[in-house]
UniProtKB/TrEMBL annotation:
Domain of life of the organism encoding this protein: Eukaryota
InterPro entries: D-isomer_2_OHA_DH_cat_dom, D-isomer_DH_CS, D-isomer_DH_CS1, D-isomer_DH_NAD-bd, D-LDH-like, NAD(P)-bd_dom_sf
Gene Ontology terms for molecular function: NAD binding; oxidoreductase activity, acting on the CH-OH group of donors, NAD or NADP as acceptor
Residue span(s) of domain D-isomer specific 2-hydroxyacid dehydrogenase NAD-binding: 110-300
Keywords: NAD, Oxidoreductase
Protein name (record): D-lactate dehydrogenase
Domain D-isomer specific 2-hydroxyacid dehydrogenase catalytic: 4-332
PANTHER family in UniProt: 2-HYDROXYACID DEHYDROGENASE HOMOLOG 1-RELATED
CDD domains registered for this protein in UniProt: LDH_like_2 (cd12183)
Length: 333
């Protein structure tokens, strides 16, 4: 297949060129983010390969169809950026990489919890400036604390396991589709009502997908249900948190610390070098101004293992589509 690869980063191109199935598809690596205008660049290609902040909305899919594209291959797990209904109407296949390295994200989430609880980020800057004072760096032990995992799929389950088995936290979880067998083995206890988790957790880690039902799961009404001094970590999708409500709860001190790898309007900024330019997003700038907020640019997945796995699965998915075979990683509306 001829594949137009949008939003290319050099580390992705390297992983695709080094994959066992490299060479079976002809890939054009493009730096552009997919949108209705850049979609025209797919002319003459059979498929597009896209990442989390490429927009495969209805308008873009219409342009892709006219350009002759038959498949959208997501090189990520989430597919909230694809209009699946329109893709089906246009008979454009959508495939994804449901699991590449849940360990990469789970380990990052635990690292983020440690960072904001033990203030690694503040200590790093302080020591570099020759300031060896410890005032303001007091953290708390994770052992014995209650961690609430929202979403116990591949990543949430692993995160809970590390925290329960490794740190000896009391791990609670909420998931509308609980997996009792794996949870028992991981040392995770389910609550049947999300509110119970919100009320009890010292630390909340988000691991559910972004859907209409989960958008703003943490919002102006649900933040007050959480414990005074709660720590929040989000490595899932920015839209799970109503950022303005989070800011209010940081300002009034209800939320003690936050680690975010994702942000609800990250599409405009993430994966690009904006240094030396003006940040126009006042909400993001306000987040950055808090001493107790640690932000990263959607990098939880970024390990060699994950990149290799993404590349190989994507190439196999494209082969399935090319050969008209059923693809186990197809996404339907
Ligand atoms: P998964 O599909 O294995 O698990 C998602 C779980 O969420 C499922 O068990 C599902 O039942 C549960 N869920 C659905 N609705 C829920 C709700 N309302 N409340 C609580 N749980 C709910 O997905 P995964 O591989 O574990 O990934 C989780 C999320 O992590 C993805 O959706 C993606 O958005 C995000 N992610 C982020 C990165 C990153 O680099 N930051 C990388 C990969 C994935």
């Amino acid at each position: 297949m001829k594949v137009a690869f949008f939003s290319t980063k050099e580390y992705e191109a390297d992983a695709f060129k080094g994959a066992p199935s490299a060479g079976i598809h002809e890939i054009t690596y493009l730096p552009h983010r997919l949108d209705p205008v850049t979609a025209r660049l797919a002319q003459g290609h059979d498929a597009v390969c896209i990442f989390v902040n490429d927009a495969a909305d209805a308008e873009t899919l219409d342009v892709l169809k006219q350009a002759g594209v038959k498949a959208v291959a997501l090189r990520c797990a989430g597919y909230n950026n694809v209009d699946l209904k329109r893709a089906e109407e246009l008979e454009i296949a959508v495939v994804r990489v449901p699991a590449y390295s849940p360990e990469a994200v789970a380990e990052f989430a635990v690292g983020m919890i440690m960072t904001v609880v033990r203030k690694y980020h503040k200590a790093y800057n302080r020591v570099r400036e020759g300031n060896f004072l410890l005032s303001g760096l007091v953290g708390f032990n994770l052992q014995g604390k209650t961690v609430g995992i929202i979403g116990t799929g591949k990543i949430g389950m692993l995160t809970g396991r590390i925290l329960s088995r490794g740190f000896r936290c009391n791990v609670l979880a909420y998931d509308p589709y609980p997996n009792k067998v794996d949870a028992d083995e991981a040392g995770i206890t389910y609550v049947s009502d999300l509110k119970d988790l919100l009320k009890q957790a010292d630390i909340i880690s988000l691991h559910c997908p972004l859907m209409d039902s989960t958008r703003y799961l943490l919002n102006a009404e649900t933040f007050p249900l959480t414990k005074e001094g709660v720590v929040i970590v989000n490595t899932s999708r920015g839209g799970l948190i109503e950022t303005n409500a989070l800011i209010q709860n940081l300002k009034n001190g209800h939320v003690a610390a936050v680690g975010l790898d994702v942000y609800e309007r990250e599409g405009e900024y993430f994966f690009r070098d904006g240094s030396g330019t003006i940040m126009h997003d006042d909400v993001f700038s306000r987040l950055l101004s808090f001493y107790n907020v640690f932000l990263t640019g959607h990098q939880a997945f970024l390990t060699n293992e994950a990149l290799s796995s993404i590349a190989q699965t994507t190439l196999e998915n494209l082969s399935n589509v090319e050969q008209g075979e059923a693809c186990k990683n197809a996404v339907k509306g």
